[in-house]
């Protein structure tokens, strides 16, 4: 009763002004706080920058007792404790209890809590679950429990932490009090998971719009690490002095990219869990105090870090889930100003992420793959990116054009696909709404896969109904059919496709249905250069170089890509190399390739410069950090000694595909390698000849295309191995 009265009587605006200096609340903040003051469980879904922290900080200062805030990151705790204590007249109002504290510091925290000084106690879930802390907190008056970053509870969330699952049993042991769960990202599935796990199914839910109108979203083709590094350096130079965060998946890449940025006079620092806590803390402070402009980080950085003027967030690697992506891009433009969100994408990175899941429980793998598929769909689709993101979080975006994403600013032509949508809906119905998108597409195409045959679905009338249509049409039709509300993806049941009422009405009375085709992202192993962001590409020269390449390929009876890749020609038409030595500065051109094919190209470039009075740029190149080539040297030496490649991978501590990536890089940079000894041991001679002949005739060296063209008799590893042999012999 007391709590209810408090909720009604307290002047929250005065309290807000007194404690935080703000004149008014944002959005649902006041309603959330009153709900908590009334003693009710509360669920808050609020985008990053919406002011979630205030929803538990202010009531903790008003209510009797100590609020327990369960938070996943030590950095976040320190940041928030410093802020609260900085505003308070008395010491010890906020404390954190975690593994970073020594015994004396823990004793001081406990003393302040017992004496009633501490209103906010931040605890990591691991610390909360310790018996000695449970026993201590049983003696304390708990005002409420706040679970921050609550998506960590759910396996469907982007940052699942098993220890979060123990929070409810531990709360029961300590003593019940109202619970407030807060997150910036949660789909319907994750929301239900959070509430169930915390035992707050009846909690009042406050959901804010996920639309951040000031954020610009863009996905770029990731060609190679070197090309991506160059592109990022150029981007940051164009936004000189602005704060930004770059997210990478691996610690190694974080370190490498930070070194590249520093070499190019950009004030940057790495941040990841492998660094000691003092270094991490210093880097965080340097970023907040603007002593450095750019943080290169793993996802360990950023949760709850309040820097309002981050102007760009770059994802070097595509994230594992759209939730993670939304959370991380949400660090940009929290002050309502400019926020540029750039992600780099290539298929190969998805396959790497899938590999990371090997060995995990089947259910976990399945969830992980579904989340990855959603991310891939976001990257590849030409639909408004804002609309796709908001749809993922269960919010409808009614505008046709957001005017603030790459797809809306450069729209693709829409094509009529009403007939194709009808084929999809008929297929879903024929399959009794019991299969995923990939299965439905195989069924529509008339592909009698083992799975389809085992279900006897090849015998259905609808089987192969779309085999004469463009095969690239089906994914965008399904994705855009979901967004339009004709199809529902049942996330709780492994992403099965279901018909909606609107979908059934469409089947009865088909209407026009316009779609845009997906972007085509090509994997590119060689070092490429992007022509985005100001690369001064000489279109006339580029056309002349392509003509020369075509004539040379015809004369030598090799595919054009063997001589030089498109990205190499683009860079030649930007950098104007006129000697074989200069030519080797072009990405994808090694000494062997330059010597073999380069002379005529250099002569053409020189003639073009002389005839048109072109002044060649002395320094257009991004400075690079000398790469640690120990691994590459070891691979070359081992292959020279004819060490079996699977044994070599084991020695290097890599999986086989990772090592093939390294060998690809060596071969594409112009070094000749002979792996015949290994091919003779592991592959049928006819298979080698067939694949080799395919690459000799093919217009592209893409593995995906080769897999499709060659059919199911050849594995991806076989094709990659023969491509190495082919490129070594024909290109270097």
Structural summary, described in words:
By secondary structure, this protein is an alpha/beta fold. The chain has five domains: 2-207, Rossmann fold (3-Layer(aba) Sandwich); 215-409, Rossmann fold; 414-516, Arc Repressor Mutant, subunit A (Orthogonal Bundle); 539-612, HRDC domain (DNA polymerase, domain 1), CATH 1.10.150; 630-731, Arc Repressor Mutant, subunit A, CATH 1.10.10.1390. The strands form four sheets. Strands 3-4-2-5-6-1-7 form a seven-stranded parallel beta sheet, sandwiched between helices. A six-stranded parallel beta sheet has the order 8-13-12-9-11-10. Strands 14-17 form a two-stranded antiparallel ribbon. Strand 15 (487-490) and strand 16 (496-499) form a beta hairpin. Helix 15 packs antiparallel against helix 16 (362-380) and helix 24 (539-556) packs across helix 28. It is globular.
